[in-house]
């Protein structure tokens, strides 16, 4: 990169020093600190010895990997819940949370995969069919896990088992028959079912539930595993299953249906998902699966924490549109306290779609003007929510689907799109100005992504186009302006970072986090693109949505722009990896030279218009600094001398007056109108180093080759 002038070096060092100081303050306040409670719920019956051995040998590697990724910010506590069956002499062996890795390793080393079946219970002595069964007491183990000393913000529980819990609804008899056939093919048994390589007598022909489960009607203590996983969720525990064998598939499906379901009256329910990681017989996948589980739990807990800080019952009211079901009694009470009359909800159709509504569509480049109208329907229930907005699906009516495709809102393959509604009330969150500010942020992020894609081959980042929708017929102002965007590809959605100090550290997150760091350095510590979130396509492209620009001028880019505070929180949590080092990126306390100055457009419409990144070029001052020009006296000029803009009023013969005022170009000294001097750039002789000075179109073209036309 070309060198900066001494004054610009000073300006950059000043900005970097300010961010570095804020970064240290953020670290002292705990921003970027990672506290993790990691629980292993392990089946320790006969068939699980290889997995116990792997856990014992890999525990140190797990801790080392987490430490390498998070450094001094990591605080990890470990716990183990080893379980067998209800009737076993030792049904449970428990190690509560400890920060000692050696203590955890020694505990696991003492575990033995065995079935220590107690004598036949008194009430079963007359039951000749009673025997050691296949299901284990996972339900009881998960219930006991809720009583451990959970403390950290991030709470991750990993279940490792090859057997389902008790209850015939949690396993498939087809699978038991499949196990019988597998054993027969292996020469172990031809007419009985097999448990851990041993033939169990009493089963021939069709296998029945009571032949494989002593408690086919469910847990004898009255515990329902679907309610137990909800208890874990209430403890803010993220649940992960390592899939060892297909016998557990039905159970996991049942538990996921309960665990993933949004809780009534609590939108945070969207933040929980039971994750399944393939493992099979390959125990070498243990460390990688544990790290994936921890990373996903960190991402989920960060989102829940941000949600809890920024929302509440009253701020979520505007997500209940007039066609949605009635609010809860608490919500209605909150509305009545504010003196608002509750609207009579209209019923959605049988598929959950609301009534037909007309919307006006605005884009990032439409300069505040509508590009057309559409007729759409919005789905009754949101499918997800973030810290500041809830997201729902919408679809266009048949008559205007082609128009939506031309706008880029939908495609023929994906006729639905996503709308997002702010949780909080007021014009700051629900207005044309607020949404256009967000579109301005998106536009700046897209421009920087285009430059990144040119300069960093093989690391492509794209941002979905954004739209603002106006519902003119809605009575409530807070729900009449909504954001919209195309639907993301059907891949796993990941939040890589945010503007509150969360930074994902998985391998997939290195590239988007590096991009955030690069935007700060590329723009001379002026801009940073955060809230990197989206999916990774099959070709490796990062398809992201809803970014938030952090700018040193907090009046721009919407209320999510926290300025240098947002940048500092990112640096407090970010650890530069190989990609950052390859691009020569530096943290604020080491930053020196970034890039050459550029001419930028002034903020002239109702929102700032960003110069397209491919039009920004370095300023060329020639062989030496230009000298301060002599100004043409005001009284010698009656009309603009430049007349380079199509909007120059001098072209129509108009003279300067109280409204149409004179301006001087600081580079050539000529008198110019406002339309012919939209550019600003730092000049070597500025009294304040790095200060942006007004330049006319002729000078900006002379220095950069770019013609800046005022919009």
Automatic annotation (TrEMBL):
Keywords linked to the UniProt accession: Kinase, Metal-binding, Serine/threonine-protein kinase, Transferase, Zinc, Zinc-finger
InterPro entries noted in UniProt: a-kinase_dom (IPR004166), Kinase-like_dom_sf (IPR011009), Thr-specific_kinase-like (IPR052969), vWFA_dom_sf (IPR036465), Znf_FYVE (IPR000306), Znf_FYVE-rel (IPR017455), Znf_FYVE_PHD (IPR011011), Znf_RING/FYVE/PHD (IPR013083)
Residue ranges of domain Alpha-type protein kinase in the record: 358-588
One Gene Ontology MF term: protein serine/threonine kinase activity
Pfam families recorded: Alpha_kinase, FYVE
Annotated transmembrane regions: none
Organism superkingdom: Eukaryota
Sequence ranges assigned to domain FYVE-type in this UniProt record: 653-704
Name under which the protein is recorded: Alpha-type protein kinase domain-containing protein
Organism the protein comes from: Florenciella parvula
